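Form 7-S
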Amino acid sequence: MVLKHTSLKWLGLIAAFILLLVLMGASIVFGYTDTTIRMAIDTFTNFNGSNEHIIIESVRLPRALIAAAVGASLGVSGALLQTLTKNPLASPDIFGVNAGAGMMVVIAVTILKVDSIQAFTWMAFLGAAAAAIGVYAIGSFGREGLTPMKLTLAGAALAAMFASFTQGLLVLNEAALEQVLFWLAGSVAGRDLDNLIAVLPYLAVGLVGSLLIAGKMNVLSMGEDVAKGLGLNTALVKIGVGILVILLAGGAVAVAGPIGFIGIVIPHVTRSIVGIDHRWVIPYAALLGAMLLLAADIGSRYLLMPQEVPVGVTTAIIGTPFFIYIARRGFNSR
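Output:
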């Protein structure tokens, strides 16, 4: 049911924000080590150096913050891509952006031997940009020009190619395999605040920029000819959206690895709640994306307790049926 009145949309936004805080609290409290809400409060008000307090402060708090930031970034980048390409299946992972960013990080580890967080971040941005440009170029070939189906096929082909290159590099360097295997599955575990701080400026620019460009996205969604008739510089807007997607997806991959399906699921859920106005879609996508990844991360701790499942596996379990549903609906409507 779509919320039509502005007051209801504001109430929904406030409710989503409160639920996000609840999930962040749950992420801090729940896990293999038994902790309580009281312990969590004491950690920040009366730290005593106990094992539980150390885990909450140095492990679970960064993990919750990273999950929220990454989930918000992936949700917004998916919403931008789906509008830009007019493709309901568009997302950073389907279009190979995540795979390109991941491949460049693996190159940084296996060939360039870098271990700097900043270096990982820039390599991820480079890979994300190369993938985005490659998908757009390949999808534009042919008489029909750029179409949603060609974009999807181009993204799938490039994602497979990047994944093959990544696996080949890791086969040649077993030491690097141990270092990046858990990261490649998509995980927010084992990260600290330094990892988040390194990419936070880029994610912040991407999220704020998405809010600022939301009005222009509404015009662009009306169609190329209509948008130009209304005086919109569509080429400039598309370039801007591409840069924002690279910042959001590249930054997310740099800190958490290639986590899939958030960018597909969240935009559709968001539009079912607030409609197609991007002034509402963007903030809702950010909050719902953060909530989904936090919930998936909490669930990943209990699937194979005491072992943890990478959160990318959990999002795949959630997202695959949704992807199939959207794909079938899209083909049946043709």
